[in-house]
Amino acid sequence: MGTGGAAGAPGLPGSVRMSFTVDQTPPTTPAVATPVPTLGEWTLALLSTVLAGFAALRLGRRRLN
Fold first, then answer.
1. Model pLDDT for residues 14-25, shown as the tens digit of each residue
2. Residue 32: left (phi > 0), alpha (psi -120 to 50), or beta?
3. What residue stretches are annotated with the IPTL-CTERM protein sorting domain (predicted)?
């Protein structure tokens, strides 16, 4: 919460007075991490190989037509 005031006229030098009060709140407990399913190392390698094989077949068929 803050309060303040200003003194002076438009276009002329003036002063500004402000005061603030900071309320300290205790830190909250961190949220529990949710596990995210991922592919294993070997599964990812197999998937990459299969996709590369499909791409090679597709390119081979395109060159024949």
1. 788 888 888 888
2. beta
3. 34-63
